[in-house]
Amino acid sequence: MIQSMTGFGQVAIENEQFSASIEIKTLNSKNADCNIKMSSTFSDKEIELRNLLSSKLQRGKILLILNYVSKRSESLTASLNTEVIKSYYNSLKSISEDLDTDSNNLLEIVMNMPEVFSKENQEDITKEDWPVIQEGILEAINKTIEFRTVEGAALEKALRGAIVNITDYLEKVIELDPQRIERLKERLRNQIAEFENNENFDANRFEQELIFYIEKLDINEEKVRLSQHLKYFIQTLEQPKSNGKKLGFISQEIGREINTIGSKANDVDIQKIVVNMKDELEKIKEQNLNIL
């Protein structure tokens, strides 16, 4: 069963100690590209979260948004970061003097800047609340995987349809190939008749050229390989684990055989069918980009 790389999961946590909202969004990407936006309260957990997201969601652009608000009155106990305030103020004052602008409101600006206040009980809050938030994140990940599975079912249906269409077109090529061969034989007979009347005709050389010509135009091996690749694609779709990269490799092999049939067939009717095959293959390649 395949999974899409497009996913979404959302969880809200509300209790007497805090409220939190967790949101995960994923899009297609070759590798795991994690982006985490969360309260600075849990900044020390970022590496742990990156590893968790990469492990569970494997691939794709992954965005985690964690909003957290504590309801504890003691968590509001704060002290001023004097050194930070001084640094902000001096930097802004220097800039103000360079630009010759008003510096009356600098302190007010500084007090709204990050890390001006330090919360004294932050470590205790983190230890107490983190296990609950971690559970919420795992739930959001599971919802994202469920979303990906539903999207994957739709992708699988589209891929199966395209493979069925290519298989049908291959059957038409198989039906037309004997007629193509007869036309080639007729053309060769006429050319042989012309050459035989030529006094410089070299029978051995002609036989070698004829064998080379026939091998160059024979598409039996390509038809067999294409049929095998199409079956293998379906078998890979049906495997328990989603494998978009493998499906991508198989679709490349399918494309190689389709192109070879088109170039070797040297037949207008077959080449029209090959164009339709390529159209279906493009649909497969587009869908493959979003498969986990």
TrEMBL record:
Ranges of residues in domain Endoribonuclease YicC-like N-terminal: 2-156
Keyword field: Coiled coil, Endonuclease, Hydrolase, Nuclease
Pfam families membership: YicC-like_C, YicC-like_N
InterPro entries assigned: YicC-like_C, YicC-like_N, YicC/YloC-like
Protein name (record): YicC family protein
Cofactor section: a divalent metal cation
GO molecular function, one term: hydrolase activity
Domain spans labelled Endoribonuclease YicC-like C-terminal: 175-291
Homology family: Belongs to the YicC/YloC family.
Coiled-coil stretches: 178-205
